Amino acid sequence: MEQATVRPGGMTMKGEIRLRRGVDHVLGQVKDILDDVDDERLEEALSALEHAQRVFLYGAGRSGLVARAFAIRLMHLGYQTFVIGETITAPVAKGDVVLLISGSGETYPVVMTAEIAKNIGATVVSITHNQKTGIAALSDIVLALPAKRPGPEQEQLAPLGTLFESATWILLDGFVADLMVRTGQTEVAMRKRHATLE
Amino acid sequence: MEQATVRPGGMTMKGEIRLRRGVDHVLGQVKDILDDVDDERLEEALSALEHAQRVFLYGAGRSGLVARAFAIRLMHLGYQTFVIGETITAPVAKGDVVLLISGSGETYPVVMTAEIAKNIGATVVSITHNQKTGIAALSDIVLALPAKRPGPEQEQLAPLGTLFESATWILLDGFVADLMVRTGQTEVAMRKRHATLE
Amino acid sequence: MEQATVRPGGMTMKGEIRLRRGVDHVLGQVKDILDDVDDERLEEALSALEHAQRVFLYGAGRSGLVARAFAIRLMHLGYQTFVIGETITAPVAKGDVVLLISGSGETYPVVMTAEIAKNIGATVVSITHNQKTGIAALSDIVLALPAKRPGPEQEQLAPLGTLFESATWILLDGFVADLMVRTGQTEVAMRKRHATLE
Amino acid sequence: MEQATVRPGGMTMKGEIRLRRGVDHVLGQVKDILDDVDDERLEEALSALEHAQRVFLYGAGRSGLVARAFAIRLMHLGYQTFVIGETITAPVAKGDVVLLISGSGETYPVVMTAEIAKNIGATVVSITHNQKTGIAALSDIVLALPAKRPGPEQEQLAPLGTLFESATWILLDGFVADLMVRTGQTEVAMRKRHATLE
To answer: Among A54, B125, C41, C155, which is disulfide-ready with D187 (CB 3.0 to 4.6 Å)?
Structure first.
């Protein structure tokens, strides 16, 4: 029923284009989403991280994987870093920075974590869809990453939380570049902190 | 050379520009890297996944987190999916697809996994820097994602494996969009497979 | 102040005795705790597991590690097994067995998991200190493992949840021995299901 | 040969006895195995841990879960503790203690970890079946936990590595009791280090 142009090696034009359309859609939307993030909030989040002694990170599902990827870089930058939910963590204390990632901002364990962290007096930074989510209300600093133009194209090319998660991943790459300068770290120094055993 | 303009809220023009320079560098480089990935190899990898009964994924460190994020989407698409190294996995068997992610392609446990999987008769797909890495030699299908223009800019804005990991993350978003059509899945069906308890 | 007898190799009588006192205390208490577990409840739990298609397991902290160790054995026995909180899980459905481990029975995510599982119509089996804990109230089958004789000796030789966790570990060894017969599995068959890649 | 007496609630005497036979077999064998562990080696291991600044732990599969359970207690005791293979770890350095758990002592990543740790100048402590395993040869201190009387009873009541894993779990409970005194820790102090967020 479907029409496709078969090319050498069994490749169809259709398949190829669809994958590339997905990639281009995500890259374009991520750029749009990140362009709109408020500069002052970014500066506040960077400043909180710059002066943090210890950083705790948490997210559920794919957002949790994005959190862990950033946690590894924070460790490379010399921070004492804890991923909530791993075997070894520590009690959050006043003065710690707690970074939470949740698009919906209503995932229960993330909201609960925000509550506990806020009560303890930690600085809560959240990355979430907008200012009205459950974790936003409990956060000192909210980075809002709204999905742009939801609709059939997004459903087909970037299902579920794809745009939020990919935008957060790339945003945190930017955080690393900025924190390297703020904390005086070089790639060489970061490489040395890379785990010998992994 | 850069001039810092202090703005309300303690934000400096300099900090803001640096974070955005990091984001733009990564987005631009990721696009360049992915544009160069060979279409026939992509088609082969998509076809292998389309016809797989079971998919095993593995990577170390941040590459492992990218692998897990894709594993979650494969589960949403209805695949029996296993992340090597998690509590519950299964023995790899002939006919399974094993997807390995390693920029250097020489990380020991990843190379060992490639060897074992190849000996068992699984289809080994690797995402790695180039055709000459250790895992490439052991793979049926190699997706080469070479870092572009290494140099001081990359060291400062995208340290260590950042470009490889971010490019792989976005590439796999494209895989999901394509596999949705190949396997006849919609966002609604995927949402239903989303874990009730997480 | 303390007196110790130095023996060859730098070993002191004191150190040796203390470690062995800890081991003996735990082994003795575990035996007492398990002797008191209600036989009918054990039979109900074994029967629920015997007839389960899929088993979900969950616990926080060290109890979660005990749950995962049992999950690996259930996989060896041929069950479709999911550890809640790992990368790959699945939605709990009516008819699934959900095994929860929590001494206090009040750890929030465990209670929440019990609630969701109960609402879905899964069979909830909990291992907890007594019938009055939060998860006990939400469970179809409760295995009560009360700590015996709390006091200074326990604080010094088996701090925090040690006795509950160790008793649960050993109890689940017993479950494996029993389920082998119920499901007609041998050690040889279990070894074959052992992960090739780990 | 066995006679099953059906009792109210569908319980059979046979089922009940089988579970309890498994529990009793494991408890008895664990006691025998641990009674035979060399006192001088235990003292050396305790002394190494007592004076360690940082402790790294590693094991594969169920042995890895035993390692993590001990890691949590070391954290409660105030040690800087890292589980190799988790998101956040650190490079092993001269003077660190690396504790490896592997019955066979030949699991590849564990042997590799032993090699790297030894080359770096860390103190390698291994818990393994005997002095001849691969990791024993690379260790400064070997705690040998030989399985007793292998045969049909063990295959049926304690399949695969059950006795080794359960004996190691209980042995490390003894380590905790002893290290509490050596490091001057009380249950109250340990409870305070218990993670606020888990």
So the answer is: C155
